[in-house]
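Listing S7. Sequence submitted for prediction.
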Amino acid sequence: MQGISKGFPGVRALQEVEFSIEPGEIRALMGENGAGKSTLIKVLTGVYQPDSGSIELEGSPVRPTSPAHAQALGISTVYQEVNLAPNLTVAESICLGSGGAFVRWSDMRTRARSALQRLNLDVDVNRTLDSYPTAIQQLVAIARAIDRQAKVLVLDEPTSSLDQDECTRLFDLMRQLREQRMGIVFVTHFLDQVYAISDSITVLRNGEKVGDWKCADLDRSGLVSKMLGRNVEQERQSDKTTAEKGGTCLDISNLGKKNYLYPVTFEIRKGEVVGLAGLLGSGRTEIMKLTFGAVSADTGKVFGSPAAAIRDGLGFCSEDRKTEAIFPGLSIKENIAIVLQGKRGWHRPIPATQLERMAQQMIEKLNIKTPDTQKTVEQLSGGNQQKVILSRWLVTEPKCLLLDEPTRGIDVGAKFEIREMIRGLCRQGMAFLFTSSELEEVVGTSDRVLVLRDRKQVGELTGFDVTEEAIMSAIAGDCA
């Protein structure tokens, strides 16, 4: 792709972008929300027509006019949300649309099995697609691309809804396709996955290409800095070395619940971020919910209910944003105000002008990307939804925020902005209890880390001892 430009009313989405991929290469396409990744992919796959620029495939000029045309040329895309008809069989999902007006069902099943065998997949082609989990549906979509003899495969956020075992299976498949000389464009917001599977990286920022790198030549901090246009590592170190800690903000003593969490004891000081680190099921979320009173403790009770915790200055951002945090049918300003309104009492509604002013202030403070406060929260990206949830608690002026996976499922730029916000609020004296399944996030954000294993507290790390290696060692039991 040479000199690709694309504009929309009031927005220049792409400006003279160049992008290339070699046969047998996995290239990560990186950039924060609004960088131009989606627009570039849509130009490549015929959803959009570029304002200028050209595309060549195996040395010959092509100009996809639709996704079907792109697929016929050899360019296929698998999206995060599988775009196949769930009521069709696996065989129909793979083959329909490519065999002319007349269908021989036996030939279709044979073709589908052949495509699946190339991926070493044992799937019943007679079952409907919706009878399989998302991971298998994505692999069937890839098998469809193989049946179409794809030369370039675009994987757009394919791992967002997959667990670790499913990701491993997908990566094994990607390696197989690389060996078969297929070029793969990999879009993800998980940095670890970029370095686990990719050969090279292209970074976009504000609709322009920043550059190309081999993965071995660009470390994680360098990648984030390229995406954001500033030196992340220097800012991170400056924050952690200059932050001053005050007196005790929250004192947790012998907090536990039978068959839920073994008793834990720790304190959080004013202006401090205490991180919780451990594997899935280690007790991170359990500590959060017991502390906030969302689950009743047997020992060391802190608050009897979330209402009591809120009255005492606590806030809690759940790891399950969609079902436990946002109110999808409500506007942005209604989502921001709902806890504060609850504290005031529903018989004392917040005046409309105050509500609008408060929402606008939070939109500006947290850089929430929205044209107005009336937009429903479900229309926002994951990162902007998370900022709305954080705004909800910030307007209550809490003394301590409990953040359970606050950066899950959001792009790197939004992650950095949330981390930057946390450090800024720490300098003002606010305290945080923070957890993330990404150790790099825990290390980069926390002043002190409690290490958990099997729902027990097995270690504590402070200062320069807070490293990924030390956390992993404690989780494994080397420091128990």
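Caption to Listing S7: primary sequence and predicted structure tokens for the chain studied. The mean pLDDT is 87. The first helix runs from residue 37 to 44.
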